[in-house]
């Protein structure tokens, strides 16, 4: 049986910690007495949450696509707190548009952040997690087993990190490290809000889904489940709970029946999404595009 963790005094690393699920999880863990290591590329937002949460918080601006930067985060955490007990590999983005339409650079960046970013986070943190017999929770998604047209990069990255986590669990469990995956449906994060704002096709796709898949869950509910998962060192965290039932029936979601049901909706909505992506002139939200451009500029300047 997994060990239950009293969060008081535990050191928790969160990537993508400046906004959304990452930021609110940081607040919830701080309220439970955890010491925090918060990593993100959004310097201004990271500074704000650090000032809000007080002294037992270490912030470190880092890009999860760069292993050396994640190693620097872990080194700074070890110097400040002696090591890391819990990791929430949360950083992630999405792109818009069909495989034929999506900007290849945006597609690649989704894979780099959502999949390679988890590898870099785990690789950097493993020595201290092994030493302290810690726990890593990888944020995957309902999209890992319930793909949606127009979101191929996100679907692929979340399926990839799910199986990465399963393989990692086999590698490190005998060393006392537990590994879990978190699978969320639509959560009312900035990422989902941006997609709703940018794309009428996305809003229509949500409305066309059967209940409860059409429902967006509030961030507070998601964070409560994540914190419980960290406390229990859970193998799986499902938000909302019905996502777990779909996980058990994932073969149906990739069946010919589901394909036949989706075809009429895809025929209508995917061309609409592609037209909207062309009109936007970008395949991701303005928030992520701006952050990516700033990061590239900063790295070039540092070199």
Draw up the topology in text.
Blueprint: E1 11-15, H1 20-31, E2 35-40, H2 43-53, E3 57-61, H3 67-81, E4 86-89, H4 104-132, E5 135-139, H5 152-172, E6 178-184, H6 190-198, H7 200-208, H8 219-232, E7 236-239, H9 242-248, H10 250-253, H11 256-280, H12 286-302
Parallel strand pairs: 1-2, 1-4, 2-3, 4-5, 5-6, 6-7
Description:
- The chain starts with 10 loop residues before the first strand and ends with a helix.
- It is of the alpha/beta class.
- Helices cover 57% and strands 12% of the residues.
- α4 packs parallel to α5 (152-172).
- The protein has one domain (11-297): NAD(P)-binding Rossmann-like Domain (Rossmann fold, 3-Layer(aba) Sandwich), CATH 3.40.50.720.
- A seven-stranded parallel sheet has the order 3-2-1-4-5-6-7, sandwiched between helices.
Query: The CATH topology is what?
Result: Rossmann fold
The fraction of residues in strands falls at 5-15%
Instruction: Determine and state the CATH class.
Output: Alpha Beta
Q: Give the count of helical stretches.
A: 12
By secondary-structure content and strand pairing, the structural class works out as: alpha/beta
- Give the name of the CATH superfamily: NAD(P)-binding Rossmann-like Domain
Low-confidence stretches are 294-303
Query: How much helix is in the residues?
Result: 55-70%
CATH architecture: 3-Layer(aba) Sandwich
Major β-sheet strand ordering: 3-2-1-4-5-6-7
Element pattern in H and E = EHEHEHEHEHEHHHEHHHH
Q: Describe the largest sheet.
A: 7 strands, parallel
Rg, please? 19 Å
What is the 3D shape? globular
Please report the distance between the alpha carbons of the first and last residues. 48 Å
Structural domain count: 1
Count of beta strands: 7
What value does the average pLDDT take?
93
């Amino acid at each position: 049986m997994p060990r239950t963790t009293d969060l008081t005094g535990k050191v928790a690393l969160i990537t993508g910690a400046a906004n959304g699920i990452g930021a609110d999880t940081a607040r919830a863990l701080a309220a439970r007495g955890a010491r925090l290591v918060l990593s993100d590329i959004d310097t201004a937002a990271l500074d704000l949450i650090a000032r809000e949460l007080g002294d037992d918080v270490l912030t470190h601006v880092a890009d999860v696509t760069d292993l050396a930067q994640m190693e620097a985060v872990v080194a700074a955490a070890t110097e400040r707190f002696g090591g890391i007990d819990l990791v929430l590999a949360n950083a992630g983005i999405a792109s818009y548009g069909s495989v034929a339409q999506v900007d290849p650079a945006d597609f690649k960046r989704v894979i780099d952040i959502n999949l390679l970013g988890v590898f870099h986070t785990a690789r950097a943190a493993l020595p201290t997690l092994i030493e302290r017999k810690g726990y890593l929770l990888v944020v995957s998604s309902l999209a890992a087993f319930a793909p949606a047209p127009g979101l191929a990069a996100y679907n692929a990255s979340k399926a990839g990190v799910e199986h990465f986590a399963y393989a990692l669990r086999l590698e490190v469990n005998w060393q006392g490290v537990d590994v879990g995956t978190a699978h969320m449906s639509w959560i009312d994060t900035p990422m989902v809000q941006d997609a709703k704002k940018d794309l009428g096709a996305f809003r229509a796709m949500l409305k066309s889904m059967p209940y409860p898949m059409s429902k967006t869950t509030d961030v507070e509910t998601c964070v409560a489940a994540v914190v419980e998962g960290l406390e229990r060192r859970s193998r799986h965290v499902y938000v909302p709970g019905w996502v777990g039932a779909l996980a058990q029936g994932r073969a149906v979601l990739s069946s010919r029946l589901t394909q036949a049901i989706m075809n009429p909706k895809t025929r209508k909505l995917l061309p609409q999404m592609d037209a909207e992506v062309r009109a936007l002139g970008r395949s991701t939200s303005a928030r992520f595009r701006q952050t990516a451009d700033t990061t590239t500029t900063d790295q070039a300047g540092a070199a």
